[in-house]
């Protein structure tokens, strides 16, 4: 019986860079003998030099930035009626601001994703957060619908442009075996922003008026901008490698402690091509497996959008709730989503270690190499968690939609929202982890592709919510959404059984092209 192999990393691969035989075997020019050497070679080179405490601190900082960015999206919802009355426009016209916001959400990450992979995370976060601050001040002061619409688009560019950098930052410093729980921490920030935003928006609108929402967003984005300038370290592996390479002086936070470790340039990702807008689109035809996973992830996110946007309409009008109480209805949803870190996130990391042992590997903390991709059944590791969570989400979506449609006590749909939030966030987090596993060296670019496929069609979904509910009722609407998820699970089952083989064939084709 073969002894387990310890898998560690010596370097990071690139798109086209050629490596020496003792470097990581992820380059297109690597042959099978190099792969075997890399898999058997034991090195002490860590994936990142950051301590566990520093990693947690960085992740929590990113979660804070994520929360402030997502506040811009949802604090606005409870104020829709108040703004429409003040600006003298219809509710239907107000929904154009949501649709346009989501369209810009899909466009901004296309640009920021590829740039952040090559130029660094901090510059992208700084520029985007500065745009966010300026747009929020303008929104607080504008006095007509056109100004509202245009400034919301600008605010969307600033807030959504950060998504690629925050997702990629996790991939920069967290190895695959631990990525489930840490991604959950980052998405916990977005969940808090998404779910508590309506609560805060409702209270502010009720007590101080709707303009106070945008002053609140100005403060949040200003705090995030301060944290980026003062303490957020650069993590992009094209800039700092595993953290041993010092960044340029202009890309250092004000509080910067130089690493005492000798720079290890073998851990640096190098690109021979400049960043391009089309990089996000290329992922879909260069790696069809990742493209299908992004489609399934987006489909789950569209359903999540329906739940979040429709809640004021479905529960607010039915139970005659004011803006503040509508916001409070998001608490069960937020709580369920946050607890997905301890339920689904930890379960995913445990499953990674379990199937790693079954494959004859010793999965070590803060160590990884591309050799894992050929040995580990990554698709099975992640999808063994995702598929049950998808079906649980379907059950609770149907239950919630019909509970909200019929005459029951408000406690019933609120309890169902908790379990629905847990299942849906667990599903999307774990799918995102799998996508990050498969495109680990261009995380910003792949996150841009995810945003493109989620937000652009999602804008159409948002626009269709009110007409669909009026036409067929919320009960049948939720049932149809669950039906689409069940159909999409067929794609996930195909990837579950054939993904590893498919991935190997794609890798072979890439090697042939490289030759």
TrEMBL record:
Residues 58-500 form the Major facilitator superfamily (MFS) profile domain. Residues 1-36 are annotated as: Disordered. It is found in: Membrane. Keywords: Membrane, Transmembrane, Transmembrane helix, Transport. GO terms for molecular function: transmembrane transporter activity. Signal peptide: none annotated. PROSITE patterns: MFS. It is a multi-pass membrane protein. Residues 1-12 have a biased composition (Polar residues). The chain crosses the membrane at residues 59-80, 92-112, 124-145, 157-175, 182-201, 213-232, 383-403, 415-436, 448-469, 475-496. SUPFAM superfamilies: MFS general substrate transporter. It comes from the Eukaryota. GO terms for cellular component: plasma membrane. The keyword Membrane applies. This is Major facilitator superfamily (MFS) profile domain-containing protein.
